[in-house]
Design goal:
Elements lengths: L28 H4 L5 H8 L5 E5 L5 H14 L8 E5 L2 H13 L6 E4 H16 L6 E2 L4 H10 L6 H16 L7 H8 L7 H18 L1 E2 L1 H14 L1 H10 L2 E4 L7 H11 L5 E5 L14 H4 L1 H4 L4 E5 L1 E2 L4 H12 L4 H4 L5 E2 L8 E7 H17 L7 E5 L5 H10 L4 E4 L8 H16 L12 H9 L14 H22 L5 H14 L8 E5 L8 E6 L15 H15 L2 E12 L64 H6 L11 H18 L9 H10 L4 H5 L6 H15 L5 H6 L1
Parallel strand pairs: 1-7, 1-8, 2-3, 2-6, 4-5, 6-7, 9-10, 11-16, 12-14, 12-15, 13-14, 15-16
Helix pairs in contact: 2-3, 5-10, 6-9, 10-11, 10-12, 15-23, 17-18, 19-22, 20-21, 25-26
Length: 739
């Protein structure tokens, strides 16, 4: 598990210490550029004016921007202390600082937005306001709980976490308490409680903070913005200090962070932003790709560089990732990047359909065990799922298979508070059930479990929306399902038997966490990569998740799957189960996002899409459109094709051809006449491979003809009638030459 991109195409970065020896940084500015590909070099040398780097997954964006800063410093164009690089996690900021030191550009500030703002706030507060900066709250949950109590509203632990998240969203979107209900309605956001109640809590929370002279994490940004707006002398002082800004992961910037960035910049344009709209998966926290997508509108003279050479993943993985976005819609999809793998070919992604969830988990564990036996380190394997509640069955399957694992971004299933509380309640019911009115007239084990867990928050229908309340329900629902499966396997089992089973499962899952297979949600996997990735539970209802209702929410789910796919370097597995439990009704369907990408499925109907990658329309005028295609499958053997020539033929080069030789000759002769008439090379009409594909497919209509790679809308308009006539046996050669 690593955040770095490994590739033989990337020369070793100089490290601070290697083999006990201190490794010297590059000898001069030009040496900093060594090993960069042409686009990365373009980024590194674009040091003036606004710069927008559209960087796809695995394309070396951190490498490009750190070399850009280092090149500017080493060339004497940038002063280290005048550069501020901002990103979103302390890990990413630390990695950036380390790389800059290795490149001889120590002294450059690389921080998160909050860290940079807090330093400025601490320094300027006495001058701007007077006295000491109010104490920063470590955790706001307790104060939110008190605010709710003062509003005579009771929140359980999970509601408290969700309401706290809502307050954070409101603040980063610069929404005041009175406007919160309207803002929720406008954003089509599912609030965990009545928006009016949350607005009340929000107002009381702000009042309590003022009364106690404390500030929270979001206030750090808000107060810094306020000081820079009100005190032009302080704003000028900061602008004299920082002359050049770099912003990583720009698609995740919130409105509040963008406001702070604008104030740092003033009327200058010495700004470089890096991002990928197709990796926007945190909109629920207030992140929006609009700032990235509008960058060229706000900065008309901006230099725009696209990084599309993928050094992380094999052509097979990249092809599937591109296919996912080919079917996307919406504004972010119009700016998608078509990745081009720079690695040698690897194994095809594996799509597997299982009868039920336990079988899916067991099958996944077996494949992981086989990979480890084949030499893939356990730490280079990940199982990624949509929600944390899915982890339990994979924890159990890996434990049963003797495979070590580690959970990332979530507690182990049996260590979650709601699971511990549920276990205690079930244990008490098993011991004293005869005196528990809850269990009166309840005979069957699953019904007993449902009755007991109903006191802990389980309901027959899931709660609306996402967040902690939904996660808690999913954990309890997993226990209900476990009880149903347990009694199916052991008819006549009692509540005491189930409790013993739960204890055994909990004990069996204390596996070593060092060099273990990573279990993580798709959100927690962002920014990481592994040699082998298993994307599990890819059934409708989970991917996209049931509470994704709007088109925008559905598209964010697609991007989330795209992020999961692009975590894999070599091995990629996608799986789903037709039923939840063994013997259940096989009513589930694989996710719609894999339509046309998995064997035996049909691609969704094509629709108009945005401009070609690179911004060039396919045919005349600014409104030119291209067809979006999914991966091309060999029509003979079913293999995914990655070679451009094979993709035109829609078959492998070495697979048998059923080409109509006579038709090919007629098309060849016709093409020669067209080329002569137009005064162009023959390949400008159609390439040889396209003619071969036409002669093999023998299209009978426009729809079949445009399904052939190389036949776009423009060529259909110009040559479609002739080609279809020739395929139908009509003679068009003489007419073509005489035109």
């Amino acid at each position: 598990m690593t955040a770095a991109t490994h590739s033989p195409l990337f020369p070793h970065l100089p490290r601070e210490s290697e083999g006990g020896q201190i490794v010297a940084p590059p000898r001069d500015a030009d040496a900093v550029l060594d090993g960069l590909d042409p686009e990365q070099r373009e980024v590194a040398t674009a040091l003036h004016g606004p710069v927008c780097v559209l960087a796809g997954a695995g394309t070396g964006k951190t490498r490009a921007i750190t070399h850009r800063i280092a090149y500017g410093v080493r060339a004497g164009i940038l002063q280290p202390a005048s550069v501020l690089a901002v990103t979103f996690t302390n890990r990413a900021a630390g990695e950036m600082r380390g790389r800059l030191r290795q490149l001889g550009a120590g002294g450059v500030q690389a921080r998160t937005f909050h860290s940079a703002a807090l330093r400025q706030l601490q320094f300027f507060w006495p001058k701007a306001v007077g006295g000491e900066l109010p104490r920063l709250l470590d955790r706001k949950v307790q104060l939110v709980a008190e605010a709710a109590a003062r509003c005579r509203l009771r929140l359980d632990r999970n509601e408290l976490r969700d309401v706290t998240g809502e307050l954070e969203w409101a603040k980063v979107t610069q929404t005041v308490p009175a406007d919160y209900p309207a803002a929720v309605a406008k954003s089509v956001r599912e609030a965990p409680r009545d928006p009016a109640e949350i607005g009340q809590i929000y107002g009381m929370y702000e009042q309590l903070k003022r009364d106690r002279s404390v500030i929270d994490f979001e206030d750090v940004l808000l107060l810094t913005v306020g000081i820079l707006q009100d005190r032009h002398d302080i704003a000028d002082q900061i602008r004299r200090q920082y002359q050049h800004f770099v912003v990583d992961e720009y698609q995740d910037v919130s409105p509040l962070q963008q406001r702070l960035l604008d104030l740092w910049l003033g009327d200058r344009e010495s700004l470089c932003v890096v991002g990928d709209a197709s990796q926007t998966i945190y909109s629920f926290t207030g992140a929006t790709p609009d700032h990235l997508l509008n960058f060229r509108t706000r900065h008309p003279g901006a230099t725009v560089v696209k990084l599309v050479r993928d050094y992380r993943s094999t052509p097979q993985v990249v092809h599937l990732a591109n296919g996912l976005l080919n079917q996307a819609r919406g504004r972010a999809a119009e700016h998608r990047l078509e990745l081009i793998s720079q690695r040698d070919p690897g194994p095809e992604p594996v799509c597997t359909e299982y009868a039920d969830e336990p079988t899916e988990a067991e099958g996944t564990a077996r494949r992981i065990r086989d990979l480890i036996a084949a030499g893939v380190p356990a730490g280079e394997i990940a199982v990624l799922y949509r929600i944390n509640a899915q982890s339990e069955v994979y924890e159990q399957a890996l434990a049963d298979a003797g495979v070590p694992y580690q959970l990332r971004g979530a507690e182990r299933f049996f260590e979650r508070q709601e699971v511990r509380e549920a276990g205690a309640a079930l244990r008490g019911a098993a011991r004293f059930g005869g005196n528990d009115s809850l269990l009166d007239d309840v005979v069957e084990l699953p019904a007993q479990v449902r009755a007991v867990l109903s006191t802990k928050g389980w309901t027959s229908e899931p709660p609306a929306g996402s967040g902690a309340v939904r996660d808690r329900w999913e954990s309890l629902a997993a226990l209900v399902r476990l009880a149903e499966d347990f009694v199916r396997a052991k008819p006549g089992a009692t509540l005491a038997d189930l409790v013993a089973e739960l204890d055994e499962r909990a004990a069996a899952q204390h596996a070593p966490t060092v060099q273990g297979v990573t279990l993580a949600s798709l959100h927690a996997a962002k920014g990481l990569e592994w040699d082998a990735v298993f994307l599990v539970g890819l059934a409708e209802g989970m991917m996209p998740i049931t509470y994704a209702k709007t088109d925008e929410q559905i598209e964010e789910e697609r991007r989330l799957l795209y992020v999961g796919v692009t975590r894999a370097r070599l091995h990629l597995s996608l799986s789903w189960a037709l039923s939840r439990s063994p013997g259940g009704r096989a009513s589930r369907r694989p996710t719609r996002f894999l339509n046309g990408l998995r064997p035996g499925s049909t691609a969704p109907a094509r629709r108009s899409a945005g401009a070609l990658p690179g911004g060039s329309p396919e045919h005349g005028g600014a409104v030119g459109r291209r067809k979006r295609r999914g991966p091309v499958i060999c029509r003979v053997c079913g293999k995914t094709l990655t070679d451009a020539g094979e993709m035109k033929l829609m078959r492998c080069e070495d697979c048998p051809s059923d080409m109509d030789e006579a038709l090919y000759e007629r098309l060849h002769t016709w093409r020669a006449g067209q080329a002569k008439r137009l005064g162009q090379p023959a390949y400008c009409v159609f390439t040889d491979k396209t003619l071969m594909a036409i002669a093999e497919a023998v299209p009978a209509g426009e729809r079949e003809l445009t399904a052939i790679a190389g036949v776009g809308a423009r060529k259909l308009d110009r040559f479609g009638a002739d080609v279809l006539a020739i395929c139908a046996g009509e003679e068009r050669v003489a007419d073509a030459v005489e035109d």
